[in-house]
Structure formats: structure tokens, C-alpha cells
Design a protein that fits this description.
single chain, about 625 residues, mainly alpha, 36 helices, about 0% strand, disordered N terminus
Amino acid sequence: MLKLLQLLPRKYSVLSARCIYLGASDGGLLRHAFRTDDANKDDLPMVDDSIAAATALWNKEELLARIKNLLNCSREQMELLYKANKKALRVFAPKLLTDNIEVLRANGIEDRFIYENPRVLSTPTDELTKKIQLLRELPAVDDVRMLAPFLKASLKSIQHMIIVAKQETIPGGNRINYISERTGTEVPVVIKFLSSSIRVYRITLDKFISNLNICLSHLEPADVVRHLTVLAHAPGSIRERLKALENSPLEKIKPWMVRVPDIALGKSFEAVIEKGRQPVFKDSVTSVWFETYVLKKIESLLGCTEETSREIYEKCKGSVYLCDNIEFLVDKRVLPLMIVQYATILTAKREDLQQKIATLETLNCLRNINDVLPLCALKVYQLKKLVNNLNNEQLGPSNTNRIYYFADITGFTPSEVTEQFARRTFMFRIPKDSFLENLKLFMQDMNREDILADLWAFKYSPGIVAERIARAKQVRGKKLMPWMVRCPDVVLEKSLQLTKESGALLGENETIVEYFCKRLGFDREMANSIIIKTPSVRNVRITKVKKVIDYLLDELDYKPHDIALNSRILMHSLHTTKKRMEQLKEIGCRPKSLIIVCKSQRQYEMFVKEWIDAKERKKKVQQIG
């Protein structure tokens, strides 16, 4: 089709384009096709050099040339105007832009306003003209050109503003002049900020004047003008917040503090309280500059990537001590990898971190400062007491401390052990004999990963630990976990009872795959496919699986093949399954697939509704027939 159109004479290109548009499913192309008739009415011609030109919007260069004829602007400014209104050109013809420029200039709007607010040109010309006419009706305005910023507001907002302005009586003739007189601000400046806070005109006059008086009695006039939206709050709320701010640590109260949530205000308080230590920037540009500087310095100190340095910066929330602490740790031969892994210790004051490292260096039998670095997360006084306790005890043949002893027995690195001990500081307070005996008992019957992950079991006496392990070992064999030592007796009994039931059902050394083979009559390959399809079935108690299979096969007469196709049913609640199957039976539905029983409540209810509706329609058809 494309080759045929390319071979046609140029005079048939427009016709060809229309054929393409009418046959296309894209609504946007269809709109453009109908717009080609408007192109002959003193607007830009369509480019027809190729079939691609037939689907183009308009000739960009010709549009820019027309704009340059209307505005004395540079190429860069024309590009900005075009880019800002590019989306509108997909819906409207380029004549909209040129017409709007002519309308704005005819009403004395300066070119500078058009450059600074290019999106105004995307407004339909009739609507733009209507906005200008409405703004001319605003009372007590000598020069309507000053009101140009309001053209960015919606037509509905401008109409409401004019209606309110005409009905109310206020010194100065309107709220713009009133604010200007009360704050000593020039009218164009007031208009600039009021145009972006036009909802101020939705406030009743009494509330507007009252709130302005309250704000001006506590805040700088220039700040009030920049944050006029604060006037929309209830007078009582403004008074309450301003009263609370009087005794705050803030050096200067800003209007935005009146309207932000309490939690945001609290963060500002904290930042000011820490002034002199944590930097507070006057503008976002300075803040970004500082952040970039810190990130680059972290990269150079640790030899890491930009992503890693940003991760450290975010973990430390941009702490002012970040770079100093990294320099100090590097001088102490702390590995960069350890600094990255335990970056949160960098938020401490430099003098505190120095004191912590000095305390750790006094630890007896210290092999490497990297081994105990995670302990820097503790407070200084905690660390001193902890090191003192460790130095007063000697464990094992090498007379080491319990960190190294635990690491040597379990095979973990000392830093991994220290990290967990720092999170569970009670490990340093457990009596020496209990620590040694419990560790020995755990290592005999449990995996080392489970022991390190659940240190709470060490808090129990060796007698209780040995008794619990012996009870669990009789039923579970070698599959013991630390939680069995610390859980309530009822929970342990329940767990052991379920284990007994599962063991009785499966038999010695029988897996769930073998149970499927025996109960459903599948070969091993088919049983394995069920596990592969639904891996979570492995985590379901075999006793529950048995009850679900018995119900489906014995009571509902489903086939093993139905269960294999929808193995999710084995994980579903048996109570819910029974309830839904009974409901489906009542409405005369026996689903061929069990998948509908496993759906969410919303999906299941939709299925039931559709079934009932279909049944009613079928019944009506039969009655008519």
C-alpha cells in the first residue's frame, strides 16, 4: 500500500492521506484528517513530499517563521515556545498560536510575558479573548495589562473572581489593591503571587481581612504576599499555630509554617535546634551543591561508585559529620567495605566516634578493629561497660572473649557475630557458664545459621534448654529450631503433635511427592510437576493436604486429574472451599475447574452473579419458546 501511494502523482497525496486517515484506528490521525480542510483557510499548508509527510502535523519551520514575524525573538525563544505548545498542536491547528499572539499584543500584553508563560498560547482563542474581557471588568484597575498573570488561571476561576470583586466593597476597590496597601508591596508583585493563589477569592471578605490582619501582626509583609494561600485557613487555626510558634526555637517564622502538618513543622524545629552542627540552607540550589560535594568526597575516600556514595549519604540522612568520620575510619585502617556495610555509625559526632574506636582498641585479644566495628552503633557509655565486661572474662583455650569464641565455634566471621550481638546486647550479660553450655547444646542439634539468627534462646537456663531439646528431638529428630526452646509450652506441644500426625501419615522418610504418588495414583514425574507448578505446596502441612484431597475425591467425586490441573486448591482453606462448593451446589453449578474456588472473594462473587444471570436469561428464553 505504501509503495503504491509513493508512486502516485503529488496532486493525489492529500487524497491518499485522507484514505489512510479514514482507514486508521488511531483517533488522533482521524482528527488530523478532518483538519486538512482548515489548512486552506489562511493557515499553513501540509507537507506532501512523501507519504510520511501526509501523516505529519504541520511544517515546523513555517510555523516558527510566522511566530518570528509576530514576535521579535531569538531562535532559542521560538524553540521554547514551540516545545511548550507542541502538545496543543496535536489537537489544534498552528493558527491558534499565531492568533493568540495577535490577541495578546493587540491588548498590550508584553512579549516578555509570552516568553515567560508560553503555555498561555495553548488556550483556545475564544477562551483567551473571554479571559481578557473579564479582566477588564475588574474594579479599580487602571491598566489591564498588569493583570496578564491571571491569564494562566482557568476561565471559571477568573469568572468567579470578577463576580466576587464586583459584589464586595473593600478599601482600594479590590483585594489586589488592598493587599498592596496593607503590605506596602507594589501592585504587579501582588498580582504575580495572587494569580497563583487565586483561590483567595473563594474566601469570604470578612475571613480574608481577619486572616490578613492576624498574619501581618506576626509575620513579615513580604512573606505574607509570597504565601497568600495561608489566608484560606480558619482564623482559629492560624492563631493557634502562631501562638505555638512564638515559643519555638525557630529564628524566623514563615507563613508556610502555619499551613504545614505538625510533623513537618517538628522536623524544622529539630534542624534549627541543631544549628551550628547540621547545615541549614537558604535555598535548594545551595543544598544540592552541598550534597554533590559530599557525594564526590565519599567516592574519593572510599573508591566507590556514585550509587554507593548516594546510598551512604541517604542512610546517614546527609549528616554533617559524614566525611570527617569516613576520613577518621580510613586512617584507622577500617576497610571501605565495612564502612559501606555499617554506614549508619557515620552519623555519630566525630568526637563520639573517636571515643568509641579508642574504647574498642582497649579490648583484650583484639585481632582486627574491623571485627568489632558494628559495636560502634552502641552509645559511648554502653560500649565502655561492655568492653570492661569482656576484658574481665576469658573463654576457651586461647583465653579470648565471647565474640571470638562464638565465631570460632560456629564458623562465622567475627564481624557477623558482632553485628548480631550489637543488636542483642543481652548476649554480653548472660552468665559465662550458661553461655558456654547453651552454645554447646545448640551446636549439637541445630544449624549454625538458625542459632545466630535467633539468639533469644540463649536467655534460658541450660536445664530448660536441654529439656526442651530432648522433648523436641524425640518427635522431630534432627530438625530442631531455637524457637522451640523459647516458645510457650502449649505452642511446642501443638507443633510436636502436628509433627507426629504428619509423620504417621507420611511414614518414615516419605516426602510429599511420594505421598502424591500413593494417594493420587500419579507417577513420580507427575507428582513433581505439581510441586514445580505450585512450589508453596511444600510448606502446607501434610495433614491439611490430606483433608483437602479426601474432601475433593471422596465427597465431591472429583478426579485426581482435576487436582493436578489446579494444585492451588491444596493451599486453600478447607473451610472456605466447603462453603463455596455448597453455595455453588445450591445454585445448580458444579464447576468443571476447581480454579474458581481458589479465586479472591470479589472474583468468586462475580462468577456466582454471572452464573445466576445466565441461568435467569436461559429460563426466560425457554418460557418465550
